[in-house]
Design a protein that fits this description.
It is globular and about 45 Å long. The chain is 77% helix and 5% strand. The protein has one domain. The protein is mostly helical. Helix 1 crosses helix 2, helix 1 crosses helix 4 and helix 2 runs antiparallel to helix 3. A two-stranded antiparallel ribbon has the order 1-2. The chain contains 4 helices and 2 strands; from the N terminus they run H-E-H-H-E-H. The model has no long low-confidence stretch (mean pLDDT 83).
């Protein structure tokens, strides 16, 4: 993945989290603008670690079918981001999410916007 794409994904993640907190203030709460930036950094970092762990685990299992890899990576990407939101909400007082389904829908929205917006190359 290029650096441009990584930076774009980071900004998309932050913007989607911010918009979701405006649309659903009872489910997603921040203590201020710096909390949005720190939450985005933490979620991006934790999600990267979770996906890397899944990828290395699949490589260790020597699964050779591409379809199985894609299904497992998409599944863990979505639930990995959900887990990232819940972990950050637990560890950081400036961000709160009301439950699993709020975190799951936020992760789904972030995934859809990250995949659908492509940088010009």
């Amino acid at each position: 993945m290029s650096k441009t794409r990584q930076i774009l994904n980071f900004f998309i993640l932050g913007i989607v989290i911010w918009i979701a907190s405006l649309l659903f203030p009872e489910n997603i709460k921040f203590s201020g603008f710096p909390a949005i930036i720190l939450t985005t950094l933490l979620v991006y970092f934790i999600e990267t670690l979770l996906i890397l762990g899944v990828f290395l685990g699949l490589a260790a299992l020597k699964i050779r079918r591409l379809a199985v890899w894609i299904i497992i990576l998409v599944f863990f990407a979505l639930f990995g981001m959900t887990a990232s939101f819940l972990i950050v909400a637990y560890l950081y007082d400036g961000f709160s999410v009301s439950g699993f389904w709020s975190a799951f829908l936020l992760a789904l929205g972030c995934s859809i916007f990250t995949v659908s917006i492509k940088p010009n190359q």
